[in-house]
Amino acid sequence: MPETATIQVLGRGTNVDFTIDDTVPYETAARNLRAYLSECRGLYSKGTVSVNVGRRILEAEQLSGIKRILDKESGLTVSRYWCAPEILEDALIHNGEAGTFLPTPGDHSPVEDLLPVSDLPAPAVEPQEVESPAAAVAVAPATAEPVSSEPVPVAEQPEQLEGQQLALAIFQPENALSQTGPAEDAPAENAPFAINPENAAPEPGEVKPATPEEIPDGDSTVSQPPVSAVEETNSEPVPADGLAATTQDTTEEEPAPPESGTDADSTPPYPIAGDRAIGPYRGSEALIIKTTCRSGEVIRYPGDVVVLADVNPGAEIIAGGDIVVLGALRGMAHAGAGGNLKSTIFAMNLESYRLQIGPHIGEAPREVRRAKSPPSAAPKIAYLRRRSIFVAPFVRRYEEYQGGILYEG
Amino acid sequence: MKGKTIVITSGKGGVGKTTTTANIGTGLAMRGHKVVVIDTDIGLRNLDVVMGLENRIVYDLVDAIEDRCKLHQAMIRDKHLPELYLIPAAQTRDKNCINPEQLTGLCRKLEQEFDYVIIDCPAGIEQGFKNAISPAQEAILVTTPEVSAIRDADRVIGLLEAAELYRPRLIINRVRPGMVKRGDMLDKDDIVELLAVDVLGMVPADDRLITATNQGVPVIHDKRAPSSMAFSRIVARIDGDDVPMLDLEAKTGLMDKVRDLMGISRSEYSHA
Q: Is the ipTM beyond the 0.90 threshold?
């Protein structure tokens, strides 16, 4: 419904994006815009709209014409104009002209307009979110360069921004974040338009979740163009690097949640919610822990875990792969938590009396537990055979372990 | 002049935090330092009782923090030592009524005036613990040679490290040298191997300590008590003296051997 021949509409929370097809003449676009707005009269009452003019360069009077139409036919306030990346330079020329449409700091009308609405749950714009957001995508200027050059808002006078921020902040505080700085969230705002020509007609289902997602987050990373998202993940510190800093937060009260942006590509077999913030699992990488794991500390990692210290009683290590402890293992160790039954637990001093590999739990036999002196200091390896855990001395090579003591399940 | 704030904590209750705080505070004051001890166990205050100052409380820590009194009004001067002050906890409030920032601000003020600010931490790892450790530059961990206390101490070391209080020093309290000798009690090396921290000292189990605590006089005043000697050495180490660590040893007189065989052990001690 919001889609007409030349105008595409994408609702984003309190903000609405209009994209004007750049292949039609301005007059047609203006007529269609007016027709569309009169058709959906009542749909918009209050809110802001950003207008994407595509690749065309509009004259000042044409821009003001659009603004007049919007002002007359809807209650929307134009917050900014966008354009296609190729005409960046040209767009910059229009800075001054476009700026005149934005509320100036002295002009409090948008704030006053928005104030009453802040009490209501934004009735005008919410329908927009539900309406096919995919539509907006299809229109993107066909020849737009994907990411390389970020389109900048045509108007970015800081004083005017402040007025805008205020308006948005009052309107819906949680959304203010994503909309405060046009210069910053330029890529996020424009992402659907700049990127999507490549995947010509995305499923509505694909696009739909993106919209509600980015609204509560107020987070530009979600809607960032795929290319830059990949860069972001690659440039992340490897887990070993992150450790020095992350070992400090051992409190269970404040576990470091995984980054929403990072686990999207890794999809670990189970959620990582360890006390130590750990990076995404990338197949072969092991998590290396260099400080003693103390009571109450839980380390969950979908890959292998190497501890270059002790694991004290009360600490837990839950690894999708193997566990290697180059100190004393006295806490709970659970290898192969993802279901890999070939996982093993190795420790220079294996003093835990309870081990788990995959779903199988083994408890040390009485003679081992009763032994007054701690188990001999020789390195040991725990492995699974016929659904029972055996603990064998580790001799020379990984392939050579065998036999050992049965830890009964 | 910039003082030092030290928190005395344990995780587990009943291991002797408050007694240790009273004795360390008193010991430092006996060495000529200006010391203030703060009881942060709001709702379950004890330190004033152990120090025998219960009857002098007019204002408390919460009053001082909430500006109902001047900071100096909440400080109670010790009976014996003019340079030792106590800030008691409130008994009618709970631990959530102050926050770490407020206590930190209070301690920063006190540090300007005192050489040592000693904080008695409540048991547990909840709000009271967080309050107590936040102003501290150093932490002293009290534990007894029992598996449960050591397990809790281990957890607390982790939490202290998370709060950037690295390498807390350990006081092992209520050591019974005779039991250690027989192998019935964890000894210092076992504990250190597990906790991987430096030991500040060991305090023998001592009947005189219990008597002194009940009388409201810190045992460190009783020069002949074995625990007093242990505390004096601990205080010297806190103060920066290099005092060699001695193992606690059971008395080995004939009567002791007889008692030992009969299973009636009197207080067994020497000093560490």
A: no
